[in-house]
Amino acid sequence: MNLPVEWQLQPSSGLDTVKVEALSFSASLRNLDLARQAVALFPNFGWPLAALRYLVPVFGVADPWERELALVWGAGLPFANLWALDHVCLYNLDVPEAQLERRAK
């Protein structure tokens, strides 16, 4: 991976948020272990979860996108985008939501 050392920490990165995409890991390679590593990359660097986004590949019904989305939610990342959304619409896929906070604050 080509990643500037400065991006490993949010203060030195100059970025407010970062979106990770590893489309080939689950879609082409069918390797959820690699996808799990991609999901955990910036949290492992110490970035705050609120500053992280993840792009989940959706390429038809045979793609393990739901499992990768579950990895994102399980890691506590607050935002996941689906790519390509037209496949979600074309195949009328149900998109699971992250667990809602049920406690009053």
Rg estimate, integer Å: 15 Å
Question: So how many helices?
Answer: 5
Number of distinct beta strands: 3
Main sheet characteristics: 3 strands, parallel
Strand order of the largest sheet: 1-2-3
Basic shape: globular
Q: Overall mean pLDDT score? A: 89
Fraction of helical residues? 25-40%
Report strand %. 5-15%
Order of helices and strands: HEHHEHEH
Distance from first to last alpha carbon? 40 Å
Structural class by SSE content:
alpha/beta
Q: What are the segments in which pLDDT stays under 50 over at least 5 consecutive residues?
A: none
Please give a quick description of this structure.
The chain is of the alpha/beta class.
Describe this structure in words.
The protein has a 3-stranded parallel β-sheet with strand order 1-2-3. The chain is α/β, with parallel strands linked by helices and 105 residues long. Helix content is 37%, strand content 14%. The protein is built from 5 helices and 3 strands, in the order αβααβαβα. It has helices at residues 10-13, 23-27, 32-45, 65-74, 85-90; strands spanning 18-21, 52-57, 79-83. 19% of the residues are buried. Helix 3 packs parallel to helix 4. It starts with 9 loop residues before the first helix and ends in a 15-residue tail after the last helix.
